[in-house]
Amino acid sequence: MLTKLANLSEKITVSHPMIDQWLASRRQLLVAYYQLVELTTKKNSNEICDDTVLNTFCASLVDYLSSGHFKHYQQIEMLLASQDQLKIISAFYPQLETSTDTLLALHDTYLEPAISKGEVPKLREAISQVGLHLDSLFDLEDQMLLSTELVTSQQTQPTLASAVPMPAKSVQSQIALSTPTLDS
Question: What are the backbone dihedrals phi and psi of residue 156, each rounded to the nearest 5 degrees, phi first?
Fold first, then answer.
């Protein structure tokens, strides 16, 4: 995911500082995620993980999701000038909301309890699920950003038809619409 972010940063020219800040907060979330992954892979099943690393990741996750949902998506909408751009962006919102809700449900249902009980095997599985869903969310956000006039691709600019997100059925196969279940 860090490689995808680096590749995105190389492919685009950003025309607004808010987008730079948003991508920087994504990078901070990913660094916290990978620190947690590294920590949990080094622990035995009966060991308890470091609360500082766990709390940093959980705080970063919730901050990133809430800032996207309540701040960045709305700011992008306000910055767009054309109605065509607004229509494209609005097509992303249902999928972004679904992805955000799924990640919050994973956090609340699996990640927080695994952390509070110190159950490393369940924590590893929860972290893995969170990583998969973060990757899907980042892909959607990247599609949305690349479809706007706020970033300029150093490759060919997507057309309106190619900028519209995947149909909901395609997204449903990638992102669980209900609270995912983890095997015990």
Answer: -75, 140
SS3 for 36-64, per residue?
Answer: HHHHHHHCCCCCCCCHHHHHHHHHHHHHH
Give 48's DSSP letter. Answer: P
pTM of the entire structure?
0.75
Q: Is 118 left (phi over 0), alpha (psi -120 to 50) or beta?
A: left
Going from N- to C-terminal start, the domains of the chain cover 2-174
In terms of Cα–Cα distance, which of 66, 92, 68 is closest to 148?
Answer: 92
Q: Which CATH class is domain 2-174?
A: mainly alpha
Closest-CA residue to 93 (of 80, 77, 107): 77
In angstroms, rounded to a whole number, what is the distance separating the alpha carbons of residues 106 and 109? 5
Percent pLDDT > 90 in the chain is: 24
Q: What is the DSSP letter of 159?
A: P
- Whether residue 21 is predicted with pLDDT greater than 80 in this model: the reply is yes
